[in-house]
Design a protein that fits this description.
The protein is an alpha+beta fold. The protein is 41% helix and 14% strand.
Length: 73
């Protein structure tokens, strides 16, 4: 498989409708379940390997997420 490089990203905003996931990734809450800790660690490691600038995780309540539901539906 050929290697490829992504263009540098100076900042990234990730929107999510899971308050639990967003708060864990923001460091506001600790992951109590081992599988959530593993996934959060993998996410952070992937972002670090991609050399992404500051990353902001933003919670979007599901009732305000109709556009994403429409796209995925």
């Amino acid at each position: 498989m050929a290697a490829f490089r992504l263009a540098p990203v100076s900042a990234l905003t990730v929107l999510g409708d899971s308050q639990l996931v967003i708060r864990i990734l923001n460091g506001q809450w600790k992951a109590k379940k081992p599988h959530l800790k593993l996934l959060a660690d993998q996410c952070r490691l992937t972002l670090a390997e991609m050399n992404v600038g500051p990353v902001k995780f933003v919670w979007v309540p599901r009732e305000r997420n109709a556009e994403a539901d429409r796209i995925c539906g």
